[in-house]
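Narrative of accomplishments. A recurring question from our advisory board has been how the design workflow behaves on a single, concrete structure rather than in aggregate. To address it, we present the structure tokens for one chain from the evaluation set, followed by the sequence designed for it. No filtering or post-editing was applied between the two.
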């Protein structure tokens, strides 16, 4: 999959249960629109959505399953249960939280990697990280690529965003690892997408700026809302 998406755009087609567009059918049509617009890959959440997307388009899919667990903050492909669902979906790559936080049931990233490799060695693995330390650890663990997905979304990085200081975090990760680095997280404009590639990102994942009309609408409305 990395060969297909290298130098191009991956569109994240996701809508959670509380969101207006939540539906495998709608996500499949969103993926079709992304393909027709020139996307080279799709990132999608849940076995049901991925199966629907694969019936609609022939683009490779980065699969995740978001599920909350009471004993852990990790919710992106957190356990073997999610790995099993994604392997059954036929996605070409599986992304998982590779932060250094405690996982549900005490599972380890290394054990999940070994489990996935044993079940299907052809599926590539992406590490969603939030810090440079996590990126380096993910590379040592054997992930095929590293993504900046969780920078700004963990308690110790919530004060910053990927794009700040001309993508300083992306630059730091690129310097720290030899594995391909995928830029993801608050890439909101074509100019930001282009800058990520200029800096050396292997690919860029864009979600909310393309596939979340509620959030896009809110940005327009807030741009002219009176300040209190």
């Amino acid at each position: 999959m990395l060969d297909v998406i290298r130098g191009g755009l991956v569109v994240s087609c996701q809508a959670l249960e509380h969101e207006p567009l939540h539906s495998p059918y709608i996500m499949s049509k969103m993926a079709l629109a992304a393909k027709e617009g020139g996307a080279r890959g799709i990132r999608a959440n849940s076995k049901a959505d991925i199966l629907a997307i694969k019936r609609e388009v022939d683009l490779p899919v980065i699969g995740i399953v978001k599920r909350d667990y009471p004993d852990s903050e990790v919710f992106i492909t957190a356990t073997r249960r999610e790995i099993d669902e994604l392997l059954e979906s036929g996605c070409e790559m599986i992304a998982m939280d590779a932060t250094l936080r405690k996982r549900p049931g005490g599972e380890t990233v290394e054990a999940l990697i070994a489990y996935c490799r044993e079940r299907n060695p052809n599926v590539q693995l992406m590490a969603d990280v939030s810090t440079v330390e996590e990126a380096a650890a993910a590379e040592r663990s054997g992930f095929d690529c590293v993504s900046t997905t969780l920078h700004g979304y963990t308690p110790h990085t919530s004060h910053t965003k990927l794009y700040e200081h001309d993508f300083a975090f992306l630059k730091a990760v690129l310097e720290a690892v030899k594995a391909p680095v995928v830029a993801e997280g608050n890439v909101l404009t074509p100019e930001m997408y282009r800058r990520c590639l200029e800096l050396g990102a292997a690919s860029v994942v864009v979600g909310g700026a393309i596939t979340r009309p509620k959030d896009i609408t809110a940005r327009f409305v807030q741009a002219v809302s009176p300040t209190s």
